[in-house]
Amino acid sequence: MKLGPLNHVGVATPSIPESIAFYRDVMGATEIHEPFDMPAQGVKVCFVDTPAQDGGQGTQIELIEPLGEDSPIHGFLKANPKGGQHHMCYEVPDIHVAKAEFEAMGKKVLGEPRIGAHGTLIFFVHPKDMGGVLTEIMETPKDG
């Protein structure tokens, strides 16, 4: 299995507006995208772009806030009331091939591929099989 580039780091937060202020005022965010609801996943999402360094590329942060009482993020925020890193997301060229390869390695894939916040197919791999980090696998967007 060869993962593609890191696409984003997911950060659970009890308040997207407060997190936006932090990334803008403290971390120097270069772009703050419009927050949007993802009812099927029980979250509100906002992408924040951090500055590039030395001609490189910045990192995209996915802020994730619970949307409704059934949100899977509630459990994370109960254990981490101020929020924190929730997952890391890597790109792959073919989501179905990647899923089959993870399963063939004995990794616990959480659910079937579904549409994620970037509008492409995603799935998650359990932290116990990924060095303690919940890992999102995302099919590379067709527009790059």
TrEMBL record:
Example of a GO MF term: metal ion binding
VOC domain segment(s): 5-140
InterPro entries in alphabetical order: Glyas_Bleomycin-R_OHBP_Dase, MeMalonyl-CoA_epimerase, MMCE/EMCE_epimerase, VOC_core
EC number of this enzyme: 5.1.99.1
This protein's record includes keyword Cell membrane: no
Domain of life: Bacteria
Residues passing through the membrane, by range: none
Any one GO BP annotation for this protein: L-methylmalonyl-CoA metabolic process
Pfam families per the UniProt record, alphabetical: Glyoxalase_4 (PF13669)
EC class (word): isomerase
Keyword set, alphabetical order: Isomerase, Metal-binding
Family as reported in the entry's similarity comment: Belongs to the methylmalonyl-CoA epimerase family.
NCBIfam families (alphabetical): metmalonyl_epim
Name this polypeptide is given: Methylmalonyl-CoA epimerase
Gene name tied to this protein: mce
